[in-house]
From TrEMBL:
Keywords: FAD, Flavoprotein, Oxidoreductase, Redox-active center. PANTHER family: NAD(P)H SULFUR OXIDOREDUCTASE (COA-DEPENDENT) (PTHR43429:SF1), PYRIDINE NUCLEOTIDE-DISULFIDE OXIDOREDUCTASE DOMAIN-CONTAINING (PTHR43429). It comes from Natrinema saccharevitans. The lineage of its organism: Archaea, Methanobacteriati, Methanobacteriota, Stenosarchaea group, Halobacteria. This is Pyridine nucleotide-disulfide oxidoreductase. The keyword Acetylation does not apply. Residues 348-453 form the Pyridine nucleotide-disulphide oxidoreductase dimerisation domain. InterPro entries: FAD-bd_OxRdtase (IPR050260), FAD/NAD-bd_sf (IPR036188), FAD/NAD-binding_dom (IPR023753), FAD/NAD-linked_Rdtase_dimer_sf (IPR016156), Pyr_nucl-diS_OxRdtase_dimer (IPR004099). It holds the Pfam family Pyr_redox_dim. Its cofactor is FAD. The keyword Oxidoreductase applies. One of its GO terms (molecular function) is oxidoreductase activity. Gene3D superfamilies: FAD/NAD(P)-binding domain.
Length: 472
């Protein structure tokens, strides 16, 4: 441990690891290379910044570069892009404006994150086509929205019924992709007066959720005047210098801007060039302690695999909590206390206007069968609060289990915004993590008070119904 602990990447995994290592080893030299200017920021908040609910980019920053340097004594080098790793010499090479630097390491963490997927279609390089994968992306989108609202947008002549948020609609836009970013950005743009066309290649939004959740969210998007175009594979983004239309096999939709929300992929080029192994998911393969195939080289966050708690197999789930948790564990490991950091259940949540949705575990029956299970699912609708309480709504839960063992495999939940679908998913996460059966889940001692719940929480209702099915 005489050589520095070096981190490549200054966001969730990287800065969590550096901070934890500093707390555990006050005298250890810790060096972090970050190619951009921003570190330790909440990228998940970018749609709400674009929407206008969050007023400044700085509000998304958890800890500033100055605080890391001055208060935590971490040698944070922004504007440094690591371009090579030599695992034999145990060095990294970084480029900066003033030249190239080489840094030795005792232990190295690769936390290079993920990048937005740009589909292989014509026109993605036209002006007016955006992605949302970084703080700079968010800044550009916010500036575009501001220009459009000030009457400086590139407006098309036609206006549809979706222009109901502002007196003067700013024009039709396209969102490609019906996942988390696509839905969150559809809300953000609609709230700013744009006529939003949401293009989804498949036959439903939120593919990783249950069919029932997808249908419920899709219906609500339509209620909010989103022009939802399912089964619409985009073939080109047409126009001159600037995008003017989204073309599909069956249609051509005029737009003034396009947001690509077609997913992310792990940034692995640096690791690959260093001879570090990738897993079947395409992300960097690691052991339980996040160590890669190269000795003393670790990987965590959106560039690395994790272990699924249901299947025990590697999976790729690029989410913030996983990055923070695994980064923190690595910080302990490299300072002398080997720590695993735990598996993942694929737990995620999304807000779509006045609906909230959550998912966890394995829901797709084909995926469950491939993992050796015989899946069975039940969907129930139950009250979110006591029936006599003056507020409340419904929670819809699809619960999936293995027919033979009764083991809980996953759940997908929706409710009106604020009625607890997301927080109720946590009980299912606990069941997945401990390998609980549906019978076990039926007997969870969940909290009850009329303003928050019914006597039988909707999760317990779903477990009872599915348990009855399994016992028949």
């Amino acid at each position: 441990m005489s050589d520095p602990f070096v981190v490549v990447g200054g966001d969730a995994a990287g800065m969590s690891a550096a901070s934890k290592a500093r707390r555990e080893a006050p005298d250890r030299e810790i060096v972090v290379f970050e190619k951009g200017e921003w570190v330790s920021y909440g990228a998940c908040g970018l749609p709400y910044y674009v929407k206008g609910e969050i007023q400044s980019l700085e509000a998304l920053v958890s800890v500033t570069p100055e605080e890391f340097r001055e208060e935590r004594d971490i040698d944070l080098r922004t504007g440094h892009e690591v371009v090579a790793i030599d695992t034999d010499a145990r060095t990294v090479t970084a480029e900066r404006e003033s030249g190239t630097v080489t840094q030795s390491y005792g232990e190295l963490l690769i936390a290079t994150g993920a990048e937005a997927v740009v589909p292989s279609i014509d026109g993605t390089d036209r002006e007016g086509v955006y992605t949302l994968g970084s703080m700079s992306d968010g800044k550009e989108l916010r500036e575009y929205v501001a220009r459009a609202r000030d009457g400086e947008g590139f407006q098309q002549p036609d206006r549809g019924p979706a222009c109901r948020y502002l007196e003067d609609c700013t024009g039709p836009v396209g969102v490609v992709g019906g996942g988390y970013i696509g839905i969150e950005m559809a809300e953000a743009l609609a709230a700013n007066g744009f006529e939003v066309n949401l293009f989804q290649r498949g036959d439903r939004v939120l593919k990783g959720f249950s069919d029932e959740t997808s249908e419920y969210v899709a219906d609500h998007l339509r209620e909010e005047a989103i022009a939802l175009r399912l089964g619409a594979e985009v073939t080109a983004l047409e126009g001159g210098d600037r995008v003017e239309a989204v073309a599909t096999a069956d249609d051509r939709v005029p737009v003034e801007m396009v947001l690509l929300g077609t997913g992310v992929r792990p940034r692995t080029a640096l690791a690959e060039a260093a001879g570090i192994e990738l897993g079947e998911t395409g992300a960097i393969a690691t052991d339980a302690y996040r160590e890669t195939s190269a000795p003393d080289v670790y990987a965590a966050g959106d560039c690395a695999e994790a272990t699924h708690v249901v299947t025990g197999e590697p999976t790729y789930v690029p989410l913030a909590l996983t990055a923070n948790r695994h980064g923190r564990a690595i910080g302990e490991t490299v300072t002398g206390s080997p720590t695993e950091g735990g598996g993942v259940a694929g737990t995620a949540a999304v807000k779509a206007f006045e609906v909230e949705a959550a998912r966890t575990g394995i829901l797709d029956h084909e995926e469950a069968r491939a993992a050796g299970f015989d899946p069975v699912s039940e969907t129930v609708t139950a009250k979110s609060r006591a029936g006599y309480y003056p507020k409340g709504g419904n929670v819809r839960i699809t619960l999936t289990a293995d027919r033979d063992s009764g083991r809980v495999l996953g759940a997908s939940l929706t409710s009106e915004y604020g009625e607890g679908a997301v927080h109720r998913s946590h009980a299912v996460v606990a069941a997945l993590s401990e390998g609980a059966t549906v019978a076990d889940l039926e007997n969870y001692d969940l909290a009850y008070a009329p303003p928050f719940n019914t006597t039988w929480d909707p999760v317990l209702v779903a477990a009872k119904v599915l348990g009855g099915h399994l016992r028949d």
